[in-house]
Amino acid sequence: MVPMPRGQATWPRFRAGRVAGNMTVILLGLAWAGTLRAQEAAVHYLHHGVMPPGAIGQGQLQRGGPLPGFFQPVEIKAPPGALVSLAEGGGFEASQAAPRRAGLLIGSVYRLRVTNIPRAEGLEVFPTIEVIDRLYAPLGQEIRFAIPVELTQEDLEIALGGRFVTRVIYLEDPHRALPVASEGGQMWFDVGPSRDPLAVADGLGRPVAILRMGGRLPQAGRDPGFFFGSPPWIACPPRPATAKPAKAVPAKPAAAAPAEPVPAPPGAPEKAQP
Amino acid sequence: MIARRKVENATPQAKAGQRWPRAWRLAVIALGILILSSCRGPAMPGPGMAGSPADGGTLPPTAFSGPGFVAQAAGDDSRVPARLPGMELGVPVPYTPAAPWQPPGIAGPWPPDEYVCDGGNAGPPVRVGRQYDVHGLGVEDTVAHFDTLEGQTLVEPSNRVCLYSPRFGAVRQVVGVEIDQQRDRATDVHLPSRLAAPTTSQQLGLSGQKVQPVAGLGMHPAEALRMRQGDGALSSRIGPNGFDNAYRSYENVAVIRQGIFIEAEAPFLAKGVQAAVAWSHDQAVQIILDHQAANALASTRKLQETYTVGSLPAQPRLRLVKVASTPFAEPGDEVAFTLRFDNVGNQPIGNVTILDSLSGRLEYVAGSAQCSRKAQFSTRPNEGDSVLVRCELSDPLPPGAGGVLRFSCRVR
Predict the structure, then answer these.
(1) Do A70 and B48 count as a contact with CB atoms less than 8 A apart?
(2) H-only helix segments in chain A
(3) Is pLDDT at B208 greater than 70 in this prediction?
(4) What's the pTM?
(5) Full domain range(s) for residue A175
(6) Can you tell me the ipTM of this complex?
(7) Can you give the pLDDT at residue B8?
């Protein structure tokens, strides 16, 4: 088949139409690509809870936003009597009693050492904390509203038993939060080994941190990979002992005091209402 | 002929290119644009990463202010490619954030998942039926309905109050070596030849548990159906506890104390305000002559103002202002809410009823409700597994009159 030559009379019109069509496709492509970023949801489609420590946090940094360089306060809680120390400079600092608060970088992995565990004195557990998102607390309230990371007695014993515990801490959606009080500790759910804890946490709220525990002990001698480079952190003051305010409204007995009117706006009739 | 010769002398690639469908070429162009538009460079670590403050020292004042607020520390310049004028070593950047970071163009509070809000009418407009049955009152809504002299029942929402109160949960997964062994044995070739296979399929107990989610029971409580049966069945009437006449610190605004909206207090009130347009003072009665509202006549001919008393058109209106005792609270804290209601219209209104459907994160403190006017309180469960606080004034509210309603909640 011989290709048909382009006629000199129709060629300019055909060429102009093709150029216009290509330009339209290019403009539509640019307009569509520009909306891709706005349609990104804050969920971890490409991440899984079984990814190595640091991978999810680094992926979060790639998504942009005011995350790099921000020290997110984290409150590490442990059973009474347990001592917690963070890694610094290729080793561990002096152990301190829990709970303790520290500002951790987003995307970095922090190795902890938990000692003096109740009912397991003499044994050590080396969990890791990876902060994958931050909070936007009001100015001056960042430390007060730190992300709670709980090292429960049960989790520590499971880790000592040779199993691996992954806890994905998420920020609850207030519209889907369970209407129960949470003063007794952090509410958590168990998922089976066939499910992705990060995906489950995505469905319940916004994942902010991942705690991993068990399955790794420092090797004898120098083991730089064990500390994940000892990223910097900031020591935060501990929570004050008297954090709870006093009762705001004292209850009064029924019909103990008569109803009193509140001053009305100026210009109102002077006759008070009963 | 010229065109045919060009085609015959063209390279094989050009001939092949001419045989490509046009749609295929356009698709390649669109794909290239998409790939080029999606490329992003790696995030640059912020200056706050420099240096290790892990020595247990004092907290830098701008450590939690986000990236870019502190210049690079001396001796470590490997992460900052260039220093702009005014960002020399050790010199703090003069900009100090006045508020937490927030994406531009998005109304606060942001992010919404860190706040617990109450008040306003976020969903469909609330309607009151002839039997005073309320429709459209969602969780977190706060409205007041009242009757006018013309027989209408009007609804007025309050402003929205938001508390910074993030709450966290966790998803735990425990894996071990035993689980991996079970997975390896699942492909055992002996299984198909054994008669135990039907026995395995008869274990319906696991499936029975899957169709009984506890969370589903919580999301669809029975209270939603009970509410349709009307008032009284589940209502627990609470006697008025009197009123503590002393104002509290968070109520130190003129709109709460005297019912006067002052422009200077707008920033304080605007923290959780979405209905501030209803607070404008020019909608309130400014001049009262002989217990009647007057309107001002402005004229450019005389240097005076003339007030006349006439038959103004009926403008029944109720203003409902809501404030909270604290802008942030932790789980377990107690928060007091104050509702100031004022008749800013020009005729009396009756059957003033204030409804506050509390969020599931707020637990009503029993016995904490009090009103400055004679009123009847009652509570009943709402869809959010919290309560609906109802306060009905016993007497009509004349023009210019107002009152205060208080109650407390505990943050869950």
Answers:
(1) yes
(2) 11-34, 55-62, 153-160, 197-204
(3) no
(4) 0.65
(5) 70-182+224-233
(6) 0.75
(7) 53
